[in-house]
Design a protein that fits this description.
The complex is a heterodimer of chains A (817) and B (122).
Chain A (H helix, E strand, L loop, with lengths): L7 E6 L3 H12 L2 H4 E7 L5 E2 L4 H6 L8 E3 L1 H6 L2 E5 L3 E5 L4 E4 L4 E3 L2 E4 L3 E3 L18 E3 L3 H10 L5 E5 L3 H11 L4 E5 L12 H13 L3 E3 L4 E5 L6 E4 L4 E3 L2 E4 L3 E3 L2 H4 L9 E3 L11 E3 L4 E3 L7 H15 L14 E6 L2 E7 L9 E7 L4 E8 L2 E8 L5 H10 L8 H4 L7 H7 L5 E3 L4 E2 H9 L5 H8 L9 H12 L20 H11 L4 H8 L9 H12 L12 H5 L2 E2 L5 E3 L10 H13 L4 E4 L5 E6 L4 H8 L11 E6 L13 H12 L8 E6 L13 E6 L3 E6 L2 E2 L3 E2 L2 E6 L2 H18 L6 H8 L1 H8 L7 H13 L21 E3 L2
Parallel strand pairs in A: 1-2, 1-9, 2-5, 9-21, 11-18, 12-13, 12-18, 13-14, 20-22, 34-35, 35-36
Antiparallel strand pairs in A: 3-4, 6-7, 7-8, 10-19, 15-16, 16-17, 23-24, 24-27, 25-26, 26-27, 28-29, 30-31, 31-33, 32-33, 36-37, 37-40, 38-39
Chain B lengths: L9 E8 L7 E7 L2 E7 L5 E5 L13 E3 L2 E3 L6 E3 L5 E3 L6 E2 L1 E3 L4 E7 L5 H4 L2
Antiparallel strand pairs in B: 1-11, 2-3, 3-4, 4-9, 5-6, 6-7, 7-8, 10-11
Classes of the chains: A alpha/beta (817), B mainly beta (122).
Bound molecules: siroheme, flavin-adenine dinucleotide, iron/sulfur cluster and FE2/S2 (inorganic) cluster.
Chain lengths: 817, 122
């Protein structure tokens, strides 16, 4: 919209993993407004995930699956991409980049991200007279290489991979899938010499051989045999190996030539400073495998992510002080199904270096740590890499290791806490979802937040998957040193209304508050709190049923549009398929909808249903209309679904009709709001094929026409076998006691407390007393309330015909000037 | 769109009627190639910010609003819509000046925010 284009021109040479990621980082820093971006990519594609090439070669992925930035990404982000265009030269004086046809692009800033290519060892007979590879000789670096290799395998019997490093093994795995006899020919004395020591290498060799790959060590290839195509190899010891094709995988060479050609300093790669900039030219940067930083050239992706960030911070001016200090390379790989982790050095280098080692070759397990002054300087794990995350962190952060070395290799109970907090370095990442360090938590405590909840709220530690919550709590306690404040809000039902659940319910009833805004008005001094809205809405709906005054803004987006929001802002649609029972007509309709709306992913869920993933918000109403099925509620804090096994009608072990029961359960409880989701299941016998014992509520048929009712089961982030609430002898009683339990949970569960937490908090004895033995005399009232809630049910997908709010399903309203 | 509509500092555009946005909610608007989220709070304020969350691009208009706070629906970053500041998160939001006329039309001002524009405007 500006009258004059004031943007600078940014040209990027190389459209691989580093080039494209750097551009992404630049765009995410608003660089799209600073720069017109043009990229040269020698390959005729968008950017793809090179490390997935072996999956493409072996056929478990298609080329389409591995695109990171497909061609339309460039268009959408206003990046001009010259595909299939090799940049041939740089004229620094004119600030221009030339392609092979001599066409020039002018730049203000230039980024070189040319990556590397396969190193071609000087072996006689690799190339034909004209210069091309001898037919049957391949390298393994690009999508095109994959295609050429796989085309050539037709009718071939055997293949040799020259080079027993990571890439060689990956190539071998791919080749095996074509039914070839695969040989790895390696010059060194053990496989993966960069990452493994001889002990681990030997175990890996045995593993490989078990998988049918022949490994030839200490073999120096001299000649490739065959006149006009590959027939075999001859080694320096004059032995030979017959093979029909060869993949050269003997290392990589950075593509630095274009930089050298315009006078920039190059050694092993293009030399850069801590800003990823050439020391010779302030307007030229290099990033990725072609760059050499402090003498290091990296051959893995992790370092180049870090480089891309620094470069972007710097070039956009976001953080002119951003600096790259080099990466400590730690890798976790799966080579032909064998798990390997490796970091730092692989052999002790100084006399005082301490080596801790465990080896069990029969099982393919090998663990070795190298410790210097109490800190990890190197590690190799093979087979069992369970300890890798911890070790990689200790290595990366240079944190002191616990005295008891055994704990470093194996899990034997929890490490003692007190020692670790004092010794844990400040930048150790505690919350891996939100990237919060110990230091940030301590700083927050020092700034006056003296309760775990206050610290979590302000740092977001523990607010992702939640698995680090207890550690965050412990650190807060430790950092407070006894000065911990009891945070009254932990007793509130929702953070924004200072009342516990019983008090809140009492106040709501007393003042006759039927909407969320009324609650804020009367009970929170008129102050609205966004986070409290969905909890209040859920509670009010439970209390008032059909009388509840629904305010749409109180709902989380999922409940406003009756679908689950996904990372790109699209939604997933899961129709009701009670008990996992469907039929051809329904399947056909689902298939038609998936096709008509170009649904990117159709997935069978863990809940025995079909998920249409990636539906656009504006398509939701018509998708529901076309499906003409009820909502499956896969988005709500509510009753979700009831899974079922086959049951007595068909299964030879069936004791009860689990299918019919599941259908009745679903019909009765569908859509009920509750403190958190409720997942149910019925099983026809105690073999428990539908996992009813680990559901929020489950029914398991047992001998004698009886049903056991389980409550408080879990098999998600927590795993807990449910407790038996009672055993009943009819489907009607199953529905009655399930309903009563659910209603009791709806009224007494804390917001976002699943039944597994609820049961643990109250104890099954207490719950059983109330629900089964009616110890409080409320059973009848609970049944009555449940019946009213059931009667108030309305399928939300009916809003397809009558939207509830203005522009309810619009993802974007276009405004034309 | 005519050039005269754009002074060298700002341009005001009518983007919607108030009733395009339900109370307490937001909607995303595409204007001149920019995406913005306009919110109408329950107290009746109308506020406009960039549409995409600076964290991972979450649709802010789909967030929960309380007072002038919005919570991103994807990972819960929180922002103050009246200032654009992050309450929880690393980076704030771009704000757009809003005016609502007596007939309930919402106007947004766009400033020419291109870097260096000031230097070349004459
Ligand atoms: C689609 C599905 C995965 C699949 O393809 O199989 C799924 C997808 C999600 N699950 Fe799940 N869960 C799915 C079955 C399960 C199951 C298995 C089951 O239902 O039998 C479990 C274990 C049982 C349980 O619920 O405990 C499960 C345990 C979780 C948990 C952990 C809950 C816990 O407290 O232990 C979460 C996180 C949460 O609720 O906070 C979660 C959250 C999610 C969310 C909603 C994350 C989110 O908030 O966006 C995922 C939505 C992804 C998306 O982009 O749409 N999902 N999730 C399954 C839908 C089942 C269905 O038909 O409704
Ligand atoms: C089979 C395979 C498996 C791998 N597995 C792993 C793994 O498991 N883990 C890991 O961390 N790393 C792995 N890697 C390494 C990882 O892929 C690289 O580190 C990463 O791709 C380097 O990114 P880059 O952008 O620097 O180079 P590249 O991704 O190679 O991109 C460079 C691009 O620039 C183009 N180019 C070069 N010169 C020019 C020019 N003059 N003009 C225009 N374009 C040009 C090239 O064609 C190429 O597309 C693997 C690599 C391969 C080949
Ligand atoms: S679907 Fe469930 S397990 Fe899978 S990524 Fe999402 S929340 Fe995690
Ligand atoms: S995208 Fe908004 S919080 Fe992650």
């Amino acid at each position: 919209m500006s009258v004059q284009n004031t943007k600078q021109k940014l040209v990027v040479i190389g459209n691989g993993m580093a080039g494209a990621r750097t551009v992404e980082e630049i765009l995410s820093r608003g660089g799209g407004e600073q720069y017109d971006i043009t990229m040269f990519g020698e390959e005729p594609y968008g950017n793809y995930n090179r490390i997935m090439l072996s999956s493409v070669l072996e056929g478990s992925s298609q080329a389409d699956d591995i695109y990171l930035n497909p061609l339309d990404w460039y268009e959408r982000n206003n990046v001009t991409l010259h595909t299939g265009k090799r940049a041939a030269g740089i004229l620094r004086r004119a600030k221009q980049v030339f392609d092979e046809d001599g066409k020039a692009e002018t730049y203000d800033k230039l980024i070189i991200a040319t990556g590397s290519r396969a190193f071609i060892p000087a072996i006689e007979g690799v190339k034909m007279l004209g210069g091309g590879f001898k037919p049957g000789v391949f390298v393994f670096r690009t999508l095109d290489d994959c295609r050429w290799i796989s085309e050539y395998t037709a009718g071939k019997k055997s293949a040799a991979v020259i080079g027993g490093g990571l890439l060689g093994l990956e190539a071998a795995r791919g080749l095996q899938k074509f039914g070839l006899d695969v040989h790895i020919v390696h010059r060194g004395s053990h496989l993966m010499g960069m990452q493994l020591d001889p002990g681990a290498g030997a175990i890996l060799k045995t593993d490989m051989e078990k998988l049918g790959v022949r490994v030839h060590l200490k073999k120096d290839t001299r000649t490739i045999l065959g006149e006009d195509r590959v027939l075999g190899l001859r080694f320096s010891d004059d032995t030979t190996l017959e093979c029909d094709m060869i993949v050269l995988s003997a290392g990589i060479t950075p593509n630095w030539e274009i930089a050298a050609g315009c006078g920039l300093t190059t050694q092993r790669g293009i030399v850069v400073d801590d800003q990823m900039r050439s020391p010779d030219d302030r307007d030229i940067y290099a990033v990725g495998e072609c760059a050499e930083h402090r003498g290091e050239v990296y051959g893995l992706v992790a370092p180049l992510w870090e480089q891309a960030k620094v470069l972007a911070d710097h070039i956009t001016g976001r953080n002119p002080k951003a600096a790259y200090h080099g990466s400590k390379v730690a890798t976790k790989l799966k080579v032909m199904g064998v798990e390997v982790a490796s970091m730092g050095i692989i052999e002790p280098e100084q006399p005082e270096d301490e080596v801790v080692q465990f080896s069990e070759p029969k099982k393919g397990t090998y663990k070795k740590l190298i410790i210097r002054e109490g800190r990890l300087v190197g590690a190799i794990l093979l087979g069992d890499i369970g300890k890798a995350p911890y070790l990689m962190q200790a290595f990366d952060r240079n944190t002191p290791l616990p005295e008891e070395r055994l704990r470093l290799l194996f899990d034997i109970g929890d490490p003692p806490k007190q020692i670790t907090f004092t010794e844990m370095s400040a930048d150790t990442q505690v919350c891996n979802c939100n990237g919060v360090s110990k230091g940030a938590i301590v700083a927050c405590v020092n700034a006056g937040k003296r309760s775990p909840k206050a610290v979590m709220d302000s740092t977001r530690a523990g607010m992702g998957c939640g698995s680090c919550k207890s550690m965050v709590k412990d650190i807060v306690e430790w950092a407070c040193g006894g000065d911990l404040e009891e945070d009254p809000s932990v007793h509130y039902f929702v953070p924004g209304v200072p009342l516990s659940k019983p008090d809140l319910i009492h106040a709501i009833r007393q003042h006759n508050l039927k909407s969320v805004s009324a609650v804020f008005h009367y009970l929170a001094g008129g102050k609205e709190d966004a986070l409290s809205k969905p909890g209040l809405a859920s509670l009010l709906k439970t209390l008032w049923k059909a009388e509840y005054e629904d305010e749409r803004d109180a709902r989380f987006i999922n409940d406003r549009v009756h679908a689950n929001i996904q990372k790109d802002g699209t939604f997933s649609v899961i129709p009701q398929i009670a008990g996992g029972i469907t039929n051809p007509a329904q399947l056909r309709r689902i298939a038609d909808v998936a096709e008509k709306y170009k649904v990117p992913l159709v997935k069978l869920t863990g809940g025995q249903r079909i998920d249409l993933v990636g539906v656009k918000k504006e398509d939701l109403p018509s998708v529901w209309r076309d499906l003409d099925m009820p909502s499956g509620y896969a988005y709500g804090k509510s009753y979700r679904t009831c899974k079922s096994c086959i049951g007595s009608d068909y299964c030879r072990f069936g004791l009860g009709d689990s299918i019919s029961l599941a259908l009745r359960i679903e019909d009765r409880f569908k859509g009920l709001d509750s403190p958190h989701k409720m997942k149910l299941a019925t099983a026809g016998c105690p073999r428990n094929c539908s996992e009813a014992m680990v559901k929020d509520v489950g029914a398991v048929a047992v001998e004698g026409g009886k049903w056991e009712i389980y409550v408080g089961g879990a098999a998600g982030a927590s795993v807990r076998k449910g407790d038996i609430l009672c055993v009943v002898d009819s489907e009607n009683d199953v529905l009655k006691f399930m309903g009563r339990f659910i209603q009791y949970y709806r009224e007494n569960g804390k917001y976002l407390e699943r039944t597994y937490g609820f049961i643990e908090r109250l104890g099954i004895a207490k719950v059983r007393a109330v629900v089964v033995d009616d110890s409080e005399g409320i059973a009848e009232r609970l049944d009555q309330d449940m019946a009213e809630s059931v009667a108030a049910y309305r399928d939300p997908w009916k809003e397809a015909y009558m939207p509830a709010t203005a522009n309810q399903f619009a993802s974007m309203l276009q405004v034309l000037p | 769109m005519t050039d005269t509509a754009m002074t060298d500092t700002a341009m005001e555009l009518r983007v919607a009627r108030l009733d395009a946005i339900p109370p307490g909610e937001g909607r995303t608007f595409g204007v001149l190639g920019e995406k913005l989220a306009i919110f109408r709070t329950r107290e009746g304020r109308v506020l406009a910010v960039q549409a995409e969350c600076p964290h991972r691009g979450g649709p802010l208009a789909d967030g929960l609003v309380g007072g002038t706070t919005v919570i991103c629906p994807l990972h819960g970053w929180k922002f103050d819509l009246s200032t654009g500041d992050a309450i929880m998160g690393d980076c704030g939001l771009r704000k757009y000046p809003v005016r609502v006329d007596t007939e309930g039309h919402i106007f947004i001002s766009f400033e020419d925010a291109a870097p260096g524009a000031a230097a070349t405007s004459d």
